[in-house]
Amino acid sequence: MMKNMENLPRVGVGAVIKDDHNRILLVLRKRAPEADHWSLPGGKVEYMETIEAAVVREIKEELGIDIALDQLLCVTNHIIPAENTHYVAPTFLAHIVAGEAENQEPQALGDVRWFPLDHLPDRLTMTTTYALEYL
Prior knowledge:
alpha+beta, Nucleoside Triphosphate Pyrophosphohydrolase, four-stranded mixed beta sheet, three-stranded antiparallel beta sheet, about 15% helix, globular
């Protein structure tokens, strides 16, 4: 039996970007899944794109920064039946190599901020919470 392509799992990528002050960069989502929650920056993997290239591209598009990937941190099962969402989400540790983080997608992101690891906002996405457990 063939499944509807819209109901297949997708691949999304994200990055824990740390600075020299032990802070991480988070974005406030405006759209589902998990609208109005703080999230790691990232996005969807395009056809024939590696997960590494996707996370670098997505973060450049979202925040206008160039990042270098340090390592794969974890892989999250991002499954939210109420939002008809099913992503497999590899998450990387990364650092900025050029640029200052600025919101390049105000239609999708409400805010971009650095947070100390010991003072994170309350409303974190599922993938962010999971990645921070591995950090």
